[in-house]
Amino acid sequence: MPFDLGSLRRHPDVEGPGLEASDAADRLILDEATTLIREAGAGEIVVVDDSYGALALAAADAGARSVRVHQDLVTGERALAENAARLGLEGEVRTVPLGPELVADARLVLMRLPRSLDRLDEVSQLVAAHAHPEVVVVAGGRIKHMSLAMNDVLGGGFGRLDVSRARQKSRVLLAREPRPSTEPGWPRSTRHDDLGLTVVAHGGVFAGTGVDIGTRFLLDQLGDAVPDAAAAVDLACGTGVVASWLARTRPGLRVTATDRSASAAASARLTAEANGVADRVHVTRADGLEELADASERLIVLNPPFHSDAALSTGIAAHLFADAARVLAPGGELWCVWNSHLGYRPLLERVVGRTRQIARNPKFTVTASRRAA
Asked: Is the entire prediction scored with pTM above 0.90?
C-alpha cells in the first residue's frame, strides 16, 4: 500500500484549512526516486529541507533505513519527529546538522528546492564535495517557485542535470556526476564599515551578508531603546546584526538572539564571533521565545519576518508579538520595525500594550510597545 502522505501533520507549525503537510512536489520527488530508494543501502539516503517529513518518512516506509535528515526550521524538525513517532518510524530517521556528516558517502539525496539560490548553492557544494561519487540528487518544487537559475546552480556542482516533465504544477531536477566547486564556500562574510560590523551568513538566511534597509532604519533608532536595560533580546535574529550591534554599542549589555532557523542561528553565532561580542551574545535556535521565562526581559527588538510567505505574514507577526508580550517584564518594551503598509500598530496595541511611533519613512515604521506595569 502506498505511503499515506495525508496522514502527516504540520504541528507544531501553523495548521489550518488549506495548509497541508505535503504537496504535489513531494509526490513527484518520491515517484522519480522510487527505484533509487529501493536500491539504496542503509545510511545511504539523505533528505534535505523536507518540510514536515513527507520525503524521509515515505522513504522509510518503502524500506529505507538510517535516513539522515536536515531541516532548517526547528518547527519542521519537531513535526517530523511527531509524525515519525505516530507512524512507528522514529527509529529509521535521524536529524543531522548541515555539514559534511550529513551527506558523507550518500548515494541518494532527496530535497525540496529552496527559494534561495544561495541555500541551493551551499547544499549543492556540500553534496558534491562529500557524497559518494555516484550520488544522485532528486530535487523538486512547485514550478511557480522555480527558476532557470536553479539549473545553473546545480550545474555548477554536477556534470549531468536532467529535468522531469511537469506534473500538477511541480517539477524535479536530477543531478549526477558531482564535481566539487572551486567557488568560495559557505559561510561568507562582508564588512560594513558604516555600521562597524562584519556580517557572516550561511546560504539562504534573509539578506545574506548584507543589512536590509528595514534593519538599518531600526538601528538608527535603537540608541534610545530602554537605555538602562542590562539585557536585551533579538527576536527572529537572522544573521544577528541587531544582536551584535547592540552588544558592540552597549558594552555592558547581554543579548539573547533567537531564531527558528538553523542557518540563521549558526550565522548569528559567527557574526557575534566576528565582531568580538560572542561572550555577551547567546544564540539559540528556538520557536520564538519559548526558552525565556514570563515577565523576564525589559527590551525585545524585532524585525518580524513577512517575506517567506505573504499569506501568513500577519499570523507570523501576531505569534511573535504575543510571545514578546509574555516575556516582557512590566514596563518593558518591544521595539519593532515593519513595512508601513502592514499597519501593525493596532495589533501591537492590542497584544503588547501602549504603542508609540518612534520614526517613519516612506517605507518603514519603527514603534515601541510598552507592557503595562
From this structure: yes
